């Protein structure tokens, strides 16, 4: 049976099939426990910027405790100056290797395959970011993985900095960035090795919480990560307090109490929201505000819509790369992007002859328009578009058709598993 079956019947059957979700990483604690199993917390020696900690030693008058135990506040002018400075410094570094491109009329971020895809998840304590992240992992079947910085810190019993971490959590202050990022980076490495989807999107929950976090990220993480944007959950303080006090009855968390709630909310407003406004000033990032008020399903609808936008970046990038490979007859790249048979060249000749170029048509290009994309649970995608082949020498149209490609998120990344072409009727 040929890989490509250009019939609308099979396409409809494929799109109508049920794609199950597994969510192997749906438990937020699993990443912290996984890191502990690898002995990470006990064997890493962290040097913390801004304090007296070095190689597990601490002097009595360490300024690190002082710096993390005081709640900072800034005037509007100071915040604006800080935001502009950090945004300028982070403009290139926060999305290193990422380029904004256009497929038809749709913009997308082209991210190197070697970089982790990251979406920051932010919101006040109890705003629902953890609940929505868990739903994304469950529904998107390993295409999306959740890492809660808070959970990593709360499960850091074996860390040499456990006492400092606990003090910060109870007082509602922020843990030094070097500690948070070291735990996070190890968890990302472990999770990516176990994921069945290549280039998954990591939901980094509760980070960056202040400007020190953001600057630390651009210093330590940009060689391994590309940030696509942020999900920011908004919720009134009285609703947050009600939710957390209810959660505290069963959570066992030391910071689920009324005093800690108020401190954490003040910290979020004074330190995290200025960072969110800074992220909005970085052109390469998509920062989406989502109301956390309402039912879980109401919040989920907006969350899912936004996550599909993030995932569409890699799908559109793969589709463009495949078209380029077809036009240039690059069989190596073609074989990396489609589910191939044993005879790749024969498959290419049989299935792409309509779009591929013969030796006498080296100056033919494709014009793409009317692009539509549908993401199915993060693991399947359908991309449809009008494609016109144009002779660049005389600008004549060689061929025009509506092309639809079905993509699947596999271990090696997004791969095309089916396509359909229909001639365009020119009116």
Automatic annotation (TrEMBL):
The lineage's top-level taxon is: Eukaryota
Output one GO MF annotation: nucleobase-containing compound kinase activity
The signal sequence is: 1-24
The record's InterPro entries line, in alphabetical order, gives:
Adenylat/UMP-CMP_kin (IPR000850), Adenylat_kinase_CS (IPR033690), Ca/CaM-dep_prot_kinase-assoc (IPR013543), NTF2-like_dom_sf (IPR032710), P-loop_NTPase (IPR027417)
**All residue ranges annotated as the Calcium/calmodulin-dependent protein kinase II association-domain domain in the record:** 314-421
Set out the biological process GO terms recorded for this chain's protein: nucleobase-containing compound metabolic process
Its keywords, alphabetically, are: Kinase, Nucleotide-binding, Signal, Transferase
Cited HAMAP family: Adenylate_kinase_Adk
Q: Which family does it belong to?
A: Belongs to the adenylate kinase family.
Q: What is this protein called?
A: Calcium/calmodulin-dependent protein kinase II association-domain domain-containing protein
Organism of origin is Eucampia antarctica
- Biological classification of the source: Eukaryota, Sar, Stramenopiles, Ochrophyta, Bacillariophyta
């Amino acid at each position: 049976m040929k890989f490509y079956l250009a019939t609308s019947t099979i396409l409809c059957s494929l799109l109508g099939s049920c794609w199950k979700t597994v969510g192997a990483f749906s438990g937020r604690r699993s990443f912290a426990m996984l890191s502990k199993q690898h002995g990470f917390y006990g064997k890493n020696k962290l040097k913390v910027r801004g304090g007296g900690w070095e190689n597990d030693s601490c002097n009595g008058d360490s300024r690190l405790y002082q710096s993390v135990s005081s709640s900072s506040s800034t005037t509007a002018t100071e915040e604006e100056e800080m935001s502009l400075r950090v945004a300028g410094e982070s403009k290139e570094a926060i999305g290193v290797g990422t380029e904004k491109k256009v497929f038809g009329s749709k913009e997308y971020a082209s991210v190197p395959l070697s970089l982790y895809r990251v979406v920051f998840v932010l919101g006040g304590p109890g705003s629902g970011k953890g609940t929505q992240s868990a739903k994304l992992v469950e529904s998107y079947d390993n295409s999306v993985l959740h890492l809660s910085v808070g959970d990593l810190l709360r499960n850091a019993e074996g860390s040499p900095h456990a006492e400092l971490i606990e003090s910060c959590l109870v007082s509602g202050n922020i843990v030094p960035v070097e500690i948070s990022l070291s735990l996070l980076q190890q968890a990302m490495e472990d999770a990516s090795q176990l994921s069945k989807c290549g280039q998954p999107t990591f939901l980094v929950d509760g980070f960056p919480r202040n400007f020190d976090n953001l600057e630390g990220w651009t210093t330590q993480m940009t060689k391994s990560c590309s940030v696509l944007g942020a999900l920011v959950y908004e919720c009134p303080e009285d609703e947050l307090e009600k939710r957390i006090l209810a959660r505290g009855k069963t959570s066992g968390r030391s910071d689920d109490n009324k005093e800690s709630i108020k401190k954490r909310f003040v910290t979020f407003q004074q330190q995290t929201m200025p960072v969110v406004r800074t992220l909005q000033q970085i052109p390469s990032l998509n920062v989406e505000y989502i109301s956390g008020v309402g039912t879980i399903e109401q919040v989920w609808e907006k969350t899912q819509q936004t996550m599909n936008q993030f995932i569409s970046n890699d799908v559109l990038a793969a589709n463009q790369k495949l078209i380029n490979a077809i036009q240039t007859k690059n069989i190596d790249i073609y074989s990396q992007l489609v589910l191939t048979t044993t005879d790749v060249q024969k498959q290419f000749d049989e299935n792409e002859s309509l779009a591929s170029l013969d030796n006498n048509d080296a100056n033919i290009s494709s014009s793409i328009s009317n692009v539509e994309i549908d993401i199915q649970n993060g693991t399947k995608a359908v991309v449809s578009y009008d494609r016109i082949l144009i002779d660049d020498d005389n600008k004549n149209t060689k061929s025009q058709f509506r092309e639809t490609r079905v993509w699947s998120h596999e271990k090696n990344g997004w791969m095309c598993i089916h396509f359909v072409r229909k001639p365009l009727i020119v009116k």
